[in-house]
Amino acid sequence: MRTADYIRLILLAAIWGASFLFMRIAASEFGAINTAFLRVFFGFLGLAFILLILKSSVKFEGKFKHSLILGVINSGLPFFMYCLAARWLPAGYSAILNATTPLMGALTGFAFFGEKLSTRKWGGVILGLIGIMVITTVGESRSNDETIAGVVACLMATGCYGVAGFLTRSWILNKGGLDPKTVAFGSQIGATLFLLPFFIWSTTTGPSIDWLQGEVWASILAVGIICTAFAYILYFRLIADIGPLRTLTVTFLIPPFAVLWGYLALGETINEGFIIGALIVCVSVWLVVTPGKNTAAMKSEVTK
C-alpha cells in the first residue's frame, strides 16, 4: 500500500467515525427510516454537485443496474440498520460492531465467492463472536432487549457490507472497472429509490416530527454530504486500488474516532465490557485481514 492509501484510510475512518455521532443525533429526533433516507438523499445530491463541479461525465458502461443494486446493499439497508441501532447504542458501540465487517466479508467470501478460510481466519471469526458477546453482556446492565436489538442491527449492516465488497469486485472491477465517482453516484441513486417509499410511509403514517431543528439538520447534511457523498468516493477508490478486504481494514480505525466524537459532542462514556470486547474484536479482525506466514512467503517468492 502507498502512503496516499494509508492517508485516505485514516481520513475515511475519521469521517465514518463521525457518521455514528450524526446518526445518533438525527435518528433520535427524526426516526430511523427518515434519517436513513435523508442521508442517502443528500449523499446523492452531494455527489451530483461534486460531479457537476468536476465536470465529470457519468458513464455506467452497462453497469447502471448493478450500481443501483450495490446502493441498496451497501447503503440503503445498512444505513437503516445503523439508524435503528443509533437509537439504542452509543456511537462507540455501533462503531466497534461495524469493525466486524472484515469478519463478515471473510464469511461471505467463503460461503458465496469461493474464498478459502485458513485456520487462522476461522480462529479470527470465532474470536470476533466472543468479542461481540462480551460487548453485549459485560458491564453496566448492557444485556437488555434494546441492546441486543442494536447489536443485531449492526451485524446485519456489516453483513451487507461484506456482501457488497465482493459484489463490487465481481460486478464492477472484474468487468472492466468504473470511475469510483460514478459507482458512488449510482449506488446513492439506488439507495434513495429503495428508501423513498419507506420515507413516504413514515412521514404520512408515523408520529409527528418537529422538522425545525437546526442541530439535527446540520447532522443530516454532514452525514449525507461528508460521510456519504465524499466518503464513498474515497471508499470505492480504495476498493479499486487495494481490494475489498484491505479496504475493510478501515473499520480498525473507525471505533477510536467514533468514541472520541461521541465523548466530545454528547459526553458518551464506555464501560469495561466495551473495552475488553473491543480489544477482542480488534484482535479477531487482525487475524482475518493479515496474511499468515505461509501466504506472505508465497507472495515473496512470486515477486522475486
From TrEMBL:
Its main location: membrane. Pfam families: EamA (PF00892). Keywords: Cell membrane, Membrane, Transmembrane, Transmembrane helix. It is found in: Cell membrane. It comes from the Bacteria. PANTHER family: EAMA DOMAIN-CONTAINING PROTEIN, INNER MEMBRANE TRANSPORTER. This is DMT family transporter. It comes from Scandinavium hiltneri.
